[in-house]
């Protein structure tokens, strides 16, 4: 029989927390809660990477520049912090050698009986293809299946997003189906593939441990 400790009522275990580091070809990848002081670095990356990010992110009504300006960040950060304190999200900044490099967020966290959430991420284009996001998602999945005590994580990706599909494949997310007209991205309702992983699929040593064994990252 599977005897688990009871779920802490109203709790949000595992938050706030710092995860990593994992060494990748780009540098040392670590996760920490997003900060009010991230405004300028966050905005600088997002404004520079508009072309890189817009095909995959929710349509920025009001305009990309406005929605990603440094003055926009405090309001966003405040909402994220409030949701994180309630336990419905885990909003992490990805840092590489201590500098902001992107975000990996667990959203829509639902506790008993589902114990589930979704994972979303983006990364600075200057660091692309060096394993940063794969390492970051591995750290967050391991944490969610351990300290946060979730059971299922899902990720949804446009079929055209080869880089993101590759991240999920490297980590062992399973394809579950196609969600038609799922999300308003880049100005239209776009189909997405749905991927998931459950706690039973976590290898010994976690996803981060497997990346290390595969030579994709090191401690
Ligand atoms: C998707 C994204 C987060 C990946 O970040 P990243 O740090 O470059 O990811 P990783 O380096 O860990 O892995 C990317 C993999 O995709 C591969 N890849 C990237 N572009 C590719 C392309 N055009 N064709 C084929 N493979 C590609 C890389 O080679 C790498 O695989 P490998 O390790 O087998 O070589 C980043 O591209 C991004 O921020 N994109 C825009 C936002 C976005 O798509 N977010 C996710 C929405 S679901």
From TrEMBL:
The entry's keywords: Acyltransferase, Transferase
Classification via InterPro entries: Acyl_CoA_acyltransferase, GNAT_dom, N-acetyltransferase
Matching Gene3D superfamilies: 3.40.630.30
CC per GO annotation: cytoplasm
Residues of the N-acetyltransferase domain: 29-200
This protein's record includes keyword Transferase: yes
SUPFAM superfamilies recorded: Acyl-CoA N-acyltransferases (Nat)
GO terms, molecular function: protein-N-terminal-alanine acetyltransferase activity
Family: Belongs to the acetyltransferase family. RimJ subfamily.
The protein's name in its UniProt record: Ribosomal-protein-alanine N-acetyltransferase
């Amino acid at each position: 029989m599977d005897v688990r400790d009871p779920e802490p009522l109203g709790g949000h275990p595992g938050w706030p927390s710092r995860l990593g580091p994992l060494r990748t070809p780009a540098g040392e990848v670590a996760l920490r809660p997003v900060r009010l002081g991230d405004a300028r670095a966050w905005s600088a990356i997002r404004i520079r990477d508009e072309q890189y990010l817009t095909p995959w992110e929710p349509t920025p009504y009001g305009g990309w520049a406005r929605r990603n300006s440094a003055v926009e960040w405090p309001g966003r950060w405040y909402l994220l912090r409030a949701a994180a304190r309630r336990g419905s999200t885990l909003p992490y900044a990805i840092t590489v050698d201590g500098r902001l490099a992107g975000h990996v967020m667990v959203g829509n966290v639902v506790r008993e009986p589902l114990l589930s959430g979704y994972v979303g991420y983006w990364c600075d284009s200057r660091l692309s293809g060096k394993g940063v996001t794969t390492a970051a998602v591995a750290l967050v999945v391991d944490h969610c299946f351990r300290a946060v005590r979730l059971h299922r994580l899902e990720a949804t990706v446009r079929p055209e997003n080869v880089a993101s599909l590759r991240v999920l494949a490297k980590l062992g997310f399973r394809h579950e189906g196609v969600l038609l007209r799922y999300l308003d991205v880049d100005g239209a309702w776009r189909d997405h593939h749905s991927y998931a992983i459950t706690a039973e699929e976590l290898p010994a040593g976690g996803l981060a441990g497997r990346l290390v064994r595969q030579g994709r990252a090191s401690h």
